[in-house]
């Protein structure tokens, strides 16, 4: 997504700018094929941009650039997706579906798990939605029609200014959301569950080098904070199903 992808991205132009994909993969993507991946990440308290840039440079990393991201998250009124820890969003013009990998369970936290399988592109997202919830979703229509038939609508929308750095094998994102929340994310993208432990180790190493401070309590990722601030009905459902902890915890 924008400058974040190491192996798979949200648009062909982004992959070309990053220059990290093989000619064969770029050719396949140019013909509209979508790929799945596993995102491994941790979120930390956001330092100042100047502080982070200085630390990254000292450690031999580099600034990749700045981008503006608009995210729209979709679900039914009953939260049929999010209460199963499944998250559908449209980032810019690209559909993305986040699904917890069954082989690698992790603590649930409102779309902010440390491990997520990401399905990129409308057709691929439709197919996966139909596989996860066949009663609600069908894969024989375009995604807009599928969502309309399932009575899915936007429940969260916000803009993020993102500054992206590369440090070792990890990407470091400094995000400032339009509703006032900031977060630093350290991530790797992998393609198999077997690669997750090594990715966690790499992320932890980068976090130590940056003196990163983990979030405490119910403060953390952008979506979770947004839900807690602006979506009381969604929060109530997700608390009931154990996806989010109660605000008192």
Low-confidence stretches: 1-34
The radius of gyration is 18 Å
Portion of residues within helices? 25-40%
Mean pLDDT: 82
| Share of β-strand residues | 25-35%
Properties at a glance:
disordered N terminus; 29% strand; eight-stranded antiparallel β-barrel; single chain; 8 helices
In words, what does this structure look like?
With 249 residues, the protein is α+β, with helices and mostly antiparallel strands. The chain has an eight-stranded antiparallel β-barrel, surrounded by four helices. A hairpin with a 2-residue loop joins strand 6 and strand 7 (170-177). Helices cover 30% and strands 29% of the residues.
Summarize the structure.
The protein is α+β, with helices and mostly antiparallel strands. The protein has helices at residues 12-18, 23-30, 49-58, 122-132, 143-149, 196-209, 222-230, 232-240, and strands at residues 36-44, 62-75, 87-91, 94-99, 115-120, 153-167, 170-177, 182-190.
Topology, please?
Elements: H1 12-18, H2 23-30, E1 36-44, H3 49-58, E2 62-75, E3 87-91, E4 94-99, E5 115-120, H4 122-132, H5 143-149, E6 153-167, E7 170-177, E8 182-190, H6 196-209, H7 222-230, H8 232-240
Antiparallel strand pairs: 1-5, 1-8, 2-3, 2-6, 3-4, 4-5, 6-7, 7-8
